[in-house]
Sequence to fold (503 residues):
Amino acid sequence: MNSPRMRKGLIWLCTIELLVLFVPDHSSNGCYYRVFHDYNNLLLKICYTVPGLLGGIDPTPESHPGLLYPGVGATSAFQDYLFNAGIWMGGVVDGESVAVGAVDRCNYGSGFTNIVNLTQLAFPDAQRFYTVYYESSAGVEVEQNSYAFSYYSIYKDFIIFDYKIYNQSAKTYEQVYLGLYFNGIAYSGTAPPLLQEICGTKAIVGTTNDTGIVGWVADNDGNPDNGSFTNNSVTSVVGAIILYPRVSDCQTSFNWWAGAWGPTLQSNFANFGLFADSGIGSPGTCREKYYLMSNSEIDYDQNTTHLDHSLQGWLAPPANALGYADGAPSFFLLSCGPVGNLYPNDTLRFSFAIIGGESFHTDPLGYDSANPQLAVYDLSTLVSNAQIAQSLYDSLFNPPTDVKTEPLPIPNLFHLGQNYPNPFNAGTRIDFTLAKQSEVRIEIYNLLGQIVKLINLGPQLPGQKSIVWDGRGADGKAVSSGVYFYRLKAADFVQSRKMILLK
Fold:
């Protein structure tokens, strides 16, 4: 198949009450040929053995992980936050449901084949990968572009994906929904066990007062070792936000499931009817997948599964609900629609960012497996990075006029950057951004929550700032090796990050 044109990137297609899935099948996870986004703090594997697969298992002794964060090497087995991910698209054609692609596809089509192999292309101050793949049964061509940025520290915690899907068939796909499937944490450490993961959502407000939903996944307790967080501990959180279409242009849904069970609204259960698996849990048929994309649910956070949400309209929790709340291998689908119809020779666009956020866990002794709903999780860094990704995407790919605007070097946001170097053994630089003139204070504290250094900077003008901490406490003496946290307080903004001192 020769592509009629070379284009930048989106997603796939449907036929018949249709769902087209561009995520590889679990039986096809082998990723013999892959590249890595390794330009910033996220190291993400992109596979071209199976077109459209993000992450995936390597059938090699190196066992390269799917998503490392923050800033660790490609051959490290530490802190893997992604088993696999990929895009889904659903639609309606003649009342029948189909799915094509890879992950969890519903027995339709032969899967995607490469037209243009995954290739690195030039892009100013960024790492860009480009690929095109095609599904002959559905007549769908997908162009995928992905971008990692590092020219400002505030851009180092996300990767932007931009897709275009081209309908080369004679079919019209109606009531189309677009989504990102995400199968989260795989493991931690050199000989790691599977982790107990949880997922959920967080609403954000962007710089243009547009709202958004961030879907996230993390380990339930950060995987402490003997009561302390170590280099093997997964204390961060990763997630995704849909950048295009905007929430104002489509209804966002967030659905998660763990094996045979997942949250379901009573009204949706009654109206949709029984799945083959009793209506809840992992979607198997194309009809079930399309239902999840179009059900308008925002599921409650996984760590509250054992609580009774029936008064809010949900089905009662299962008998083993505490096991799900305490962490279990789980999957989520972040989707939006309907985005209209996809006519022959027409195109749809879909964009999202995969985001990291540090210091999701700050207390290695604070998790109670009998009461997981009481855990205190810090999503502030993830939310801030999602807002910055949305702002940068708009300035680069979705400008308000036809005239190309320059990237915004300083979004109108407060932000605390990751210290550099990290780990460090003498001094380390801490960058931060102020949205307005503010009284600024930086606190450095240890794992016990004790402040070891307080830095009052007084009133500061807006813009990018930095300080250097020399590794000394309030008494002027060098502090010992270990894990420390630093917190920025400016106006009403508070954000924390982790750093490691090694001597």
User: Anything to note?
Assistant: The first strand starts at residue 19 and ends at 22. Residues 382 and 462 are 22 Å apart (CA to CA). The radius of gyration is 22 Å.
